[in-house]
Write a structure and sequence with these properties.
Lipocalin; 2 domains; 14 strands
Length: about 180
């Protein structure tokens, strides 16, 4: 089914609940969504901080990025990772609902030796008429949505992996941060 226009845009993770409890999110997470393609990049807010990791899922405190194709079967959105910091790209599939202008993604994440429910709160940073552009490729992908872009170059196994987040300022794409593997 076609992705609803309400999901096309640039999104920032604005909150995170684990097992019903709001937790500190140590990453600045941007998700860029076109009608078919997506990119997600997670950058540490303070890379020099000593982060508590006990009892916290890795996606709260590790930098990583991924991109690929999105499908929609209401209420479930599925992101098929074609490029991923991990050498084992995954399929990420969870139901989403809208509540007071925020998209709530609900799922389960490993914490220690058990799976706990999580809710990621996503705040939209663009309108319904956002301009987007996707350049998917086998070794390089670039997704632009509004004034945000994520570019991933993956030359593994011979080379490296690098994902870069850009912000558009005065007509120029400026690097905001990057993830390497």
């Amino acid at each position: 089914m076609t992705l609803p226009i309400e999901l096309v845009g640039a999104w920032r993770r604005s909150g995170l609940l684990l097992d019903g409890v709001r937790v500190v999110d140590y990453c600045d997470v941007i998700w860029l969504q076109t009608p078919e393609w997506f990119a997600d990049i997670r950058l540490l807010i303070d890379p020099t901080a000593d982060l508590p990791t006990d009892g916290v899922p890795e996606f709260c405190y590790q930098e990583f990025a991924f991109a690929g194709v999105t499908t929609w079967e209401p209420p479930t959105i599925t992101w098929s990772h074609l490029m991923d910091t991990s050498l084992e790209p995954a399929v990420d599939s969870n139901p989403v609902v809208w509540a007071d202008g925020v998209v709530l993604e609900n799922g389960f994440a490993p914490v220690g030796d058990r799976m706990v429910p999580f809710t990621e709160e996503w705040l939209r940073m663009t309108g319904d008429d956002v301009v987007w552009h996707a350049e998917p490729g086998e070794k390089r992908t670039r997704i632009e949505v509004g004034r945000f872009a994520v570019e991933i170059d993956d030359e593994r196994p011979e080379g490296g992996f690098r994902a870069v987040r850009y912000h558009l300022s005065d007509g120029e794409w400026l690097e905001f941060g990057s993830v390497t593997a």
